[in-house]
C-alpha cells in the first residue's frame, strides 16, 4: 500500500512538472529568440522587454482576479480550465503575423499560464506534507532545467530550421498531451471548498494580506524575482551582441546549463529537507552572486567559456528558487493557500515585469548591436540577493 501511495504521488508530481515545463518553456523560449525578433521586426531592446513583460503582467492581473475565487473550486478542475486556455493561447502565438498580434497573444498566454503555475503549487501544498515538500518542489522545479536542456535548445533548433513559429507549435502539441495527463492522473481536490465558499471573496483577500507572515513571504518573492529578471531576459542578446556568440551557439548554453540543473534541482530539494530550507537558501544564494557578476560582465569569449558561466548561473541563480518556494509555500495558512499562492503568483509576474521593463530602460544598444549597461542590472540582482537572504529569515513556517 505504501509503495502504491508513493507511486501515485510521484506520478502526480511528474504530471505537475509537465504543466510547469510547458508553462516555463513558453516563457523561456521568448528570451533566446530575442535576437531573431529584434532582427525580423527591427525592434529595440525596450520593445523586446515589453513583449516579454506582457506575458508576466497579464499573468499578474489574472492571478489577482483568480485569487479571490480559486479556493472556491476543485483544484483539479481549476487547473484543467487554466491549462486548457494556455494550450489555445499558445496556438494563437504560432498564428501571429506581426509584432502586435504576437504581443496580444502573449498577453492571453500569460493570463492562463501564470495562474496555472500558481495552481500547481497550491496542489503541492495541499497534498504533500511539509516534511517532504522540499523534495516535491525539487521534482516539480526540474521543469525549469528540463525546459532549458531539452525544450529551449529544441525550440531554438526548430526556429533555426523553420522559423520562430515552430517552437510554439511544438509547445501546443506537448501541452495537449500534458492536459490529457492532468485529466487522467490527478485526483479531485475539494476538501477546502466548503470553508472557502463560506467566506466573502474580498474578505478572503483581506485575510491573506492582514497576515504579517504572508506579507513577509510576498516581499521575499518580489525581491527574488526582481533581482533574477533584471538579468535573465537579456542573457541571450548579451551573449550574441557582447560575448560574440552566434545565434546557433545559444542552444548549447541552455543545453549544458539545463542538463546540470536537472540533477542539482532535485539535490537542492533533498538537501533542503535534510538540512533546512533557510540554511540551503542562504548558502545557494551567497554562491549565486559569483555567476551573476560573471554573466553580466563577460567580455568576448569562446563558446566553452560562455557555457561554463551559464552552467554556474543556472545551478545557483535558478537553484535558489527550490528552497525559496518551499519556504514561501510553508508560510501560508492552509485554508488560504490557494488565494495566497495566486497572489504570490501575481507578485512574481509583477516583479518580473517590473524588472524586465526597468532593465530595458537601463540597458541600451550600440550601433554595432552590443548591449550597454548590462553590468548595472547585475549589481541590482546582487543587491536583491542579499536582501532576499535577510527577508527569508523573517518568514515563519506554519504548515
Distance between the termini: 26 Å
Number of strands: 2
| Domain unit count | 1
Kindly report the average pLDDT value: 82
In CATH terms, what is the fold-level topology?
A: Growth Hormone, Chain: A
| CATH homologous superfamily (4th level) name | MFS general substrate transporter like domains
CA radius of gyration: 20 Å
Annotation field: number of helices: 18
Sum up the overall morphology in one term: globular
Task: State the helical fraction.
Answer: over 70%
Question: Which series of helices and strands comes N to C?
Answer: HHHHHHHHHHHHHHHHHEEH
CATH class: Mainly Alpha
Residue share in β-strands = under 5%
Explain this structure to me?
Helix 4 runs antiparallel to helix 5, helix 6 runs antiparallel to helix 13 and helix 7 runs antiparallel to helix 13. This protein has a single domain, classed as MFS general substrate transporter like domains (Growth Hormone, Chain: A, Up-down Bundle). With 399 residues, the chain is mostly helical. 79% of the residues lie in helices and 1% in strands. A two-stranded antiparallel sheet has the order 1-2. The mean pLDDT is 82. A hairpin with a 5-residue loop joins strand 1 and strand 2.
Amino acid at each position: 500500500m505504501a509503495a502504491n501511495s508513493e507511486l501515485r504521488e510521484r506520478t502526480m508530481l511528474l504530471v505537475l512538472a509537465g504543466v510547469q515545463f510547458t508553462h516555463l518553456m513558453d516563457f523561456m523560449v521568448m528570451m533566446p529568440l530575442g535576437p531573431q525578433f529584434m532582427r525580423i521586426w527591427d525592434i529595440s531592446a525596450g520593445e523586446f522587454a515589453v513583449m516579454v513583460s506582457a506575458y508576466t503582467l497579464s499573468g499578474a492581473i489574472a492571478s489577482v482576479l483568480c485569487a479571490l475565487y480559486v479556493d472556491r473550486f476543485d483544484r483539479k478542475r481549476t487547473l484543467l480550465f487554466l491549462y486548457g486556455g494556455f494550450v489555445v493561447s499558445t496556438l494563437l502565438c504560432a498564428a501571429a503575423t506581426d509584432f502586435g498580434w504576437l504581443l496580444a497573444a502573449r498577453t492571453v498566454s500569460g493570463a492562463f499560464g501564470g495562474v496555472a503555475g500558481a495552481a500547481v503549487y497550491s496542489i503541492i501544498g495541499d497534498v504533500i506534507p511539509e516534511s517532504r515538500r522540499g523534495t516535491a518542489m525539487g521534482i516539480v522545479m526540474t521543469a525549469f532545467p528540463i525546459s532549458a536542456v531539452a525544450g529551449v535548445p529544441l525550440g531554438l533548433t526548430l526556429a533555426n530550421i523553420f522559423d520562430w513559429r515552430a517552437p510554439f507549435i511544438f509547445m501546443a502539441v506537448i501541452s495537449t498531451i500534458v492536459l490529457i495527463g492532468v485529466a487522467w492522473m490527478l485526483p479531485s481536490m475539494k476538501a477546502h471548498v466548503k470553508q472557502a465558499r463560506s467566506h466573502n471573496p474580498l474578505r478572503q483577500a483581506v485575510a491573506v494580506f492582514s497576515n504579517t507572515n504572508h506579507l513577509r513571504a510576498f516581499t521575499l518573492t518580489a525581491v527574488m524575482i526582481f533581482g533574477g529578471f533584471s538579468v535573465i531576459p537579456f542573457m541571450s542578446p548579451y551573449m550574441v551582441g557582447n560575448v560574440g556568440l552566434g545565434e546557433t551557439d545559444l542552444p548549447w548554453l541552455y543545453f549544458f546549463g539545463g542538463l546540470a540543473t536537472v540533477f542539482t534541482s532535485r539535490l537542492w530539494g533533498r538537501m533542503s529537507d535534510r538540512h533546512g530550507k533557510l540554511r540551503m537558501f542562504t548558502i545557494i544564494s551567497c554562491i549565486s552572486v559569483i555567476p551573476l557578476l560573471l554573466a553580466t560582465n563577460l567580455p568576448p569569449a569562446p563558446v566553452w567559456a560562455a557555457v561554463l558561466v551559464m552552467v554556474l548561473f543556472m545551478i545557483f541563480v535558478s537553484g535558489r528558487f527550490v528552497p525559496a518556494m518551499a519556504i514561501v509555500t510553508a508560510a501560508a495558512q492552509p485554508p488560504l493557500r490557494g488565494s495566497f499562492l495566486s497572489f504570490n503568483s501575481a507578485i512574481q509576474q509583477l516583479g518580473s515585469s517590473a524588472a524586465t521593463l526597468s532593465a530595458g530602460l537601463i540597458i541600451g544598444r550600440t550601433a554595432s548591436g552590443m548591449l550597454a549597461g548590462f553590468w548595472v542590472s547585475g549589481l541590482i540582482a546582487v543587491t536583491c540577493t542579499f536582501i532576499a537572504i535577510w527577508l527569508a529569515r523573517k518568514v515563519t513556517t506554519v504548515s
